[in-house]
UniProtKB/TrEMBL annotation:
The modification 4-aspartylphosphate is found at D55. CDD domains: REC_RR468-like. It comes from the Bacteria. The lineage of its organism: Bacteria, Bacillati, Cyanobacteriota, Cyanophyceae, Leptolyngbyales. Residues 5-122 form the Response regulatory domain. Pfam families: Response_reg. Keywords: Phosphoprotein. The keyword Aminoacyl-tRNA synthetase does not apply. It comes from Stenomitos frigidus AS-A4. This is Response regulator.
Length: 124
């Protein structure tokens, strides 16, 4: 199987580092990093990752706005998006269900198990 390319869009550098480490150590996948929704959209358009891990709570452009922008571009609407979030309340989950995202991974998470979770969500 060819190496997967994962784009992480998260404004917290610590989360980026932990997720990148877990994915690279456990699966050997390539990891792209973006610190904002706007930066993530540009990277997604140019790099065409296999999946995007998207933080929900970010300043300026939150995860919901970023997801909607990704869905509105022909170059990125096909890329699966998995939300990374600490929001586990039922109301938040219902809001996510109607969006068309591929899945949700709840923070905190075990970074070394992320590739397994991603593969299960996307049926890889």
């Amino acid at each position: 199987m060819p190496t997967k390319r994962i784009l992480i869009i998260d404004d917290e550098e610590t989360i980026q580092t932990v997720v990148q480490f877990g994915i690279q150590m456990s699966a050997g996948w390539d990891v792209l990093l973006a610190s904002s929704g706007a930066q993530g959209i540009v990277i997604a358009q140019t790099e065409q990752p296999d999946v995007i891990l998207l933080d929900v709570v970010m300043p300026a452009m939150d995860g919901l706005a970023t997801f909607k922008a990704l869905q509105s571009h022909l170059a990125t609407k096909h890329i699966p998006v998995i939300f990374l979030t600490a929001k586990v309340q039922t109301a938040a989950r219902r809001q996510f269900d109607g969006l068309g995202i591929s899945g949700v991974i709840t923070k905190p998470f075990n970074a070394l198990h992320l590739p397994e979770q991603i593969a299960r969500i996307l049926h890889w």
